[in-house]
Amino acid sequence: MLRTILTAGALVAALLAPGTAEAKEKGPDIPRLTDRQGRVLTLHGWNIEDKEHRGAEALSGVTERHLRDMRAKGFDFARLLVFWDDLEPRPGQYSRRYLRRIERVLDWAERYGVKVVIDAHQDVFGPAFGHRGVPAWATRTDGLPFTAHPDDWFAEYFEPAVQRAFTHLYDDPDLRRAQARMWRTLAGRFARHPAVLGYDLINEPMGEMRAGEDLAAAARRIERDQLTPMYNRLADVVRSADRDAWVFVEPTPIVGQGVPTGLGRIRGPRVVYAPHFYDTAMEAGSDYDPGAGWIEAYERAVTEYPERYRVPVVIGEWGPLDSSLPHMNRFYRDAMASLGRYASGWAGYVWCYGRGYCAVDDAGTFRVNKELTAEPYAETVAGTVRSAAYDAVRGVYRLSYRAAAHGSRVTELSMPPGAWRIGADGGAVVVRGATGGARVLAVPGRLVTVTAERA
């Protein structure tokens, strides 16, 4: 979550992000995510985490209720945070207890029909700096200084010791091997688990700035010269254990300010571009400013990479700290419309019960304005999607697709709580589910339009 204000150079780069009116009218040309049956996937969900408990108690804060409640409100996707320091507390010694805890969460996800991406999470590198992520034994600082910033933890990424630790992780052969072994352990353990959709190789990676560089230039260099080769190494490792899973790769968080990424091509199939969607002003507590053009600049910047390299997009994190400010209703409507134009899915931050970033309160009721994230969508489409859109004002969702000529005939709709009228033309049959969703069975090759209206 990006709290620090970007330098003037980065802001200029954001304003100059490529994009034309013609491109906006046409819409981005980005591939869609698919499942193992070739059906088109749309993911709406939330991050699930336990940053409080460690060691023997790690992941004890995530319960079956998290998955059950998410699914009951219409969400089919979870980005599960796991920490290398819990998985491998000492070099070469992997915690069987932690692996069982991860598997328990995956079993709950399977029970409720939730797809999971396992995210190797780090905040400010790891426990050597008072956070979670890369183990202390894999943290090298060359004796450079570190000062904590309790009121702005993201500023800690710019401390010399933290930046040097990233350089060693990217460059030192023994740390590269250790990171690869960690991923081989995770992917090898969960390759056959039906809930696992893929693996997010590292959360919000950062790096070391050079003298004279502004933040945007540093981010693009780190993404090009360090993250791209790291992702290619780790993707090969993951695929050696689980060749069917999707590999999620993130740029630095600087993309959140409309700065196009410098990431290069990640080799092989099933790659997902997984940026985060945070605005520095809102992260610092400001209200959404509809006239500032932040969402438009972000959309122009974030669609450049997937259009160039022909990979789908899933937004790994998004959502403001305070959703109750006067313009946050407009923010959620604008954000949902934008995400629907180019993303195969998203995971809001974060499914927890309480205040702040939490999606719901202690009773499980949506925090103000966060109910706008719950809307009808097609989880899976057995065919080629022509259009899909939800009119939140009228409460009408329409999906148009050409049914596949071969393979699965089943398209699955997810519906938020409430009464919905669902119909389809083109000879398709709608079968309502017990939990409020629906399945559409189509004639192979036919053009189908599905309409869902709030009753």
Characterise the protein shown here:
- By secondary structure, this protein is an alpha/beta fold.
- The protein has helices at residues 8-15, 21-26, 64-72, 84-87, 96-112, 160-171, 173-190, 215-241, 280-283, 294-302, 304-309, 328-342, and strands at residues 40-41, 43-48, 77-82, 115-120, 196-200, 246-249, 271-273, 314-315, 345-348, 377-381, 383-391, 396-403, 410-414, 420-424, 429-432, 438-441, 447-454.
- The strands form 3 sheets. An 8-stranded parallel sheet has the order 7-6-5-4-3-2-9-8.
- Strand 15 (429-432) and strand 16 form a beta hairpin.
- The chain is globular.
At a glance:
This protein has about 450 residues and is α/β, with parallel strands linked by helices. The chain is built from twelve helices and 17 strands. An eight-stranded parallel sheet has the order 7-6-5-4-3-2-9-8. Strands 1-10-13-16-15 form a five-stranded antiparallel sheet, with no helix packed on it.
Instruction: Give helix and strand order, one letter per element, not per position.
Output: HHEEHEHHEHHEHEEHHHEHEEEEEEEEE
Distance between the termini: 38 Å
Strand arrangement, major sheet: 7-6-5-4-3-2-9-8
The overall strand count is 17
Give unreliable regions as ranges.
1-26
Indicate the overall shape.
globular
Q: What structural class is derived from the secondary structure elements?
A: alpha/beta
